[in-house]
Amino acid sequence: MKAVFRHILPVGLALCLLSGCGSTAGETETEAAFVDEAPLGVASLEEETVALAEGPAALDTVLQPEASGVLTKENEKAVIDYSNTEDGYVMVCYTAETNKRLKAQVKGPTTTYTYNLVKGEWDTFPLSDGDGSYQVVVYENISGTKYATALSVRFDVALADEFAPFLRPNQYVDYGVAPNTVNKARELTEGKTEPLEKVQAVYDFVVKNITYDHELAATVQSGYLPVLDTVLAKRSGICFDYASLMTGMLRSQGIPSKLVVGYAGTAYHAWISVWSEETGWVDGAIYFDGVSWQRMDPTFASSGRQSAAIMKYIGDGSNYTTKYLY
Questions:
Q1: What is the dihedral of CA 160, 19, 101, 125, to 10 degrees?
Q2: How much is the pTM?
């Protein structure tokens, strides 16, 4: 594991981010042996983004995802590009004209992730469950929470390394289109060589400079996604924004980081987890108490002004339950 991470840090390879959403170089389905249709039918899909408002009061060259068209499944409605599964992501684009709400599900070996789709745009989703068999399904709304299958594909994943899903931009941590965020992370970490020193610098900045946006928390709508440069400019956000901003900054510096969604007590919440050679994965997220690295939650720490009671709560792992990793 250590050798792999040492290899990750100096990565300087850039891939082209496709700005359009038309047909890719691979117009036909390839590697048919890995493909299996999901049965046409109706599914009931829940919303989760609004619940994330309930929380309390840089690489030199960004690793961009690419819909390269080598392995695709498509029809008259949508395209699923699974060319880069070894790099920990899959991409989806709904190409047909529609006014219906659209969703995609990434069903991994242990967890099913449900996302919103925007017509005519490529969206990137992490393969957070690691190696194993996956199914990706595109859905279009019928009524209420009922959705019909528009396209599906099955494939097997063998990651190039365990960190692949947690280094690149995706729909929830889109630092690939956030140059100000990437530049700020570079500024904060200038002269620092150790990953945990960079984590400390980014954490201190987020906790001390970003405030909790109670108005946004009260009005946030389904489909809300953090726009990192906007959060940075406003210096405010909900827990989703705090966690996404910090995760994006750290990933842009080559530090594997997970945006974690789950429960803090009974509240639906978002926080982070990072990896270093010194600590391995620190479950939940981290802060430095002057002696050792402990669980950290940037929203709680900031809104609670890092009081002793708040930091004690954060440090108690029993208060946190992980549901999803992005």
A1: 10
A2: 0.76
